[in-house]
Every structure is written in structure tokens, then in C-alpha cells.
Amino acid sequence: MNGRGMVAALLADTGDEEWLARVPGRLDTFLSALPGPVRAAVQAAATAVDAYAVLHSGRRLAALTPGERETVLDSLVARPGLVPALDLLKVPVLLAAATERTPAPRARIAPEDPPLDCTPAEEWPARATADAVVVGSGAGGAVAARTLARAGLAVVVLEEGEHHTTASFGRRAPLDRFTELYRDGGATAALGDPPLLLPVGRAVGGTTVVNSGTCYRTPDHVVDRWSSRHGFHLAQGFPARLDEIERTLRVATQPLDVLGTNGLLALAGARRLGWRAGPLRRNAPGCKGSCQCVVGCPTGAKQSVQLSVLPEACAHGARIVTGARVLRILLDHDRPGRPRAAGIRARRADGSELEILSPLVVTAAGALQTPPLLRRSGLGGHPRLGRNLSVHPATSVAGRFMQPVTSWEGVLQSTGVEELHDRGILIEATASPPGMSSFVLPGVGRALRRELEGADRLGILGAMIADRPGGRVLGRDRTVVRYRLHPRDGARLMTAVRAMARILFAAGALEVLTGIPRAPRARTLPELDALLTGITPRDLHLSAFHPAGTVAAGSDRERAPADAEGRLRGVEGVLVTDASVLPGCPEVNPQLSIMAAALAVTETYLEREPSSRTSTSA
Length: 618
Fold this sequence. Notes:
alpha/beta; globular; six-stranded parallel beta sheet; eight-stranded antiparallel beta sheet; 618 residues
């Protein structure tokens, strides 16, 4: 779309700022990387707003003066039915504006990454063999590949995304990396009331490349529930496996000197309330506080699995094929009994296909992609496949402070507030450059411009909810995600908004910004309570993270598509090692839980199948 008029209106461009002139071009580049349905929705919203301008003034936004554009926006905001169109447009506009307005990070000499044996799919032969094929190179796939390769198996990892180096992160603007490192350009969404943005990574290293680096151990009560209620008895061995994963990722408590002001304010506010809080444990030794975790760490401090786990897998002989979309798992129906895995068929970017024959296939494509893969493979018969989806619904609140906060200087996710965790609410100080977080600044036109220019005085908190699994992954060729927010979880989100406001006020905030168009700001808690009267969770600006549970493991054949050891039911030789195998919501940032589950599933397989330890590939 031609965004010149829209950007000029939303950001009150009067022609006096050079960076604003670059935003429309950046916006068009960003939108071109998004999937067709998302582009169509944004275009429809832009067309509706432009049409309103024509009806109101006789001319399109691009032809109006700054004052006339402001008058049109004031009139439009007064019509509640059109406000959602403006909110939809603000998200990509703020992303583009943040990229052009935020100073480029200081150039650093990037460390050399550990070697990986990566081969582009175009250079891989049309047919090959292996002892094990791992579909996906994220947290679960990397651990599975390393475990199997250590045991002497010839392992091939298939990854739909590309391999990006630490040096490449430092050479490109954050928004350019954003569209390259995320599936659907970061616009994956769960359809529902309300809809939820659900970003997931797509690269060698999967979502570990773009997560915050926060490393929570699986809570004891979650381990107990998975084991006793669901029959996922492998969870009982999590403590020792979590220890191993923490050593691999070099997990440690984040030092105070790189928390940044945003994290320190959250810590101070929580402590003044007497609430449990502290610096988060992360897999980022030597973190420089660049606040770019979600677009690839440019210093190599964050130990994403392409820097920590996959190199060891490759050192033991594993190979990685990049740019390969796995179409289906091949099956051998000729043997007596159940069908058995026989390998995979994948498609290259040019449309040609390749096959890798193998008696073992490990699905680690993620909780949103594994169910469609199994359906395409004729393995989608279990009635619970794709159900049981939990997503950690999340919302954010910002506080305006007298002093500069500059939240994008310091650790992106720095402080954890666990006071309400036993009620299913985990609060974390989470910041990024203005426009690039899940928090959307209030207002349009001159009001939004003022907010953007004053963003250096905002401290930002985010809260995620341990949700009741209310989602479902549909589709075969393309994933469709549906999610229903349970009323209990909606109430928790509203509680979280007030709790985050309390922390910010206790830290000295002059006002809090809620992200709610109908109740955007409050200067006191009583004022906030009054504003929230009549507000529902559907009025919040929501996002979601950490999809899990769609091929849950357990002892109940009727409820669990995978058995208690992570083997897909109804077939021999298919293991599940991504977040989909988790029986329920992990209630914390799940990277360690996923990796511990993958380690448990693959180690148990090797114990049960001792003959698999001898390489048989040609």
C-alpha cells in the first residue's frame, strides 16, 4: 500500500523531521514480508480510513494539510466503530517509525559463531538416507539431534528457515531482521474473540533465536501435575535434565549492572510493595544490554541453540538442511502391525522435492506446525491432535516517569515479579525500542507523536497468564489457529493490569498507560479502578507467546496423541520433542521445559531401542 498519507496522519508529519520521511518506505517493505491475508487486512483498514477522509473532507489523507488530517482523525476517533481500523494500522506504523527513529546500535566486532554443518536444500541430493531425521531445529529439535548424534546415529535436521549468523544480526536494522526471523513476518495470529498475535521464530535455532533468553525451570507443581494427572512420567526425571540444560546454556542470574533502568524500576517498585521479585535467570553470559534479543542477539551473548546445542550435534556428525519445508512423513505399510516411519519428503524453495529415508522421524516443528505435518502424513487420526493449545495470553502496561528510562538500553527482559505466580500471573519487566514491543502507544496524530517522542521516559511491564488450554490448531497445508480465552484467564489479565500499575506507581511513575483505547491513562490507582469499570479483557491489547500442548504426551490413550514416552500413537518410529508434547501450560517461559522434555523423550527412546545406537545409514 502507499502509506505516505497514513503515516503523515498517524504521526502528525509536518515535514520537519527527516526520519519521518523514511517511514512510508520502511512500512511498505515491512508489509511486503507479511502473509497475504495480513496485508489484505491492513490494506482494508487503510482504505477505510482514507475513504472516511474523502467523505469528511473531499480529499484523501495524502492531499490534506497537517491541520486537516488532524481534524479528520479527531472526527474518526469519535466513531467507536472505526477505532479498531486505526489500532490495526498503528502497529505496523509504529514498528516502521521505531526503526527509523531509534539510533542505530554501536557497531561491534561480532564473535565468530561455533561451526555448524549447514547445507541449503538446493544443494542437498534428491534422495539420501539417515538413521534419524529431526524436523525443526529449535529448542526441542536441537536437543533431540544432539542426543541422537551423541549416541552414534547419523542425524539430519530439516529446517524451513535459514541460518543467520551473529555478524549478520549486527549488519541489519531490527525490523529487517524481524521479518526474516519470524514465521509470517511476525504476524502469526490466533483467531478468536479477542484475536491474539502469536509470534514464532523460523530460522536455524527456531524461536530460541528470537526469545528473551529468560530461563525458568519447570515449576515443581507443574511437573507433579504432568506426571500424576496426565501420566507423563518422564517429567519426574526433569530436575537432573534441567541441570544439564542449564549447564549447556550457561544459565545464570542476570547481573544488576546490565538490567537497565526499566528492570531496576520494576525491582524497586516490587520491593516497596514487599512483593517477591528479582533479576531473571537467562542464558546470556556477558550480555551487553543491547535489548535486541527478539531480533537476534548482535553480540552472541544469548546462547540460542544454534550457538550452544546444534554445534555439538554437528560435531558428532549431525547435518542441517536449511530452506526445506517438510511436506510429509513417509510411512512403510508393508510390515505386520502398525505402519512405521520410513523418512520424510521435503520441498525446496524452487518447488523441487527431496527425500531422506530413515526409520526414525522426530517431529520438532513447534506446537503450531507439528499437527498439520502429522495430518499431511496421514497420522492425524487422534481426536485430540491439535487440541489442548495453551498460549500464555499476555498484556502490557507502561508507566511515565519524570526521569529518563530509555528502556531499550539494558536487558530486554530483566526482572521477574513472582508475587502473583501462584495465582497464574507472571510479571516481567520487558522492553524494546518504542513501537517494537507488544505495548501500543495511545493516541493518533499529534497525540501519538508526543507519546513517541516521550517514549524514553516510559517503563514497561508485561504479564503472562497460565491459561487453561483453550486453543486448537487446524489445517493441513496451512496452519489455522483458533483460541478461546477462558473467563477465568480474562479475569487474571485484568488483575495483572492493576498489579503492574501498582508496581509502576510504587516505583515513582507519574501516570500509567494501559494500552486500552477507552481508558488510556490514569494518575492514581483509584482513577485506574474507575477507568477499568466496564472494561473487559477483550478491550485489552493482547498478545500471546509459547504455544504448547497440541500433541500432548500422557498415559490416557483417549486424551493424549503421544504416549507417556513421547512416541506418537498409531505409528512406529515417530517421536515428538517440541512444545506440542507438553501435557499442559508450563506456566513460565518454556525453553528449559521443552529442552528437558526433548532430552527425556530421546534418551528414553535410546534406552528402549538399543539397536538404534549403531549407525545404519548409507
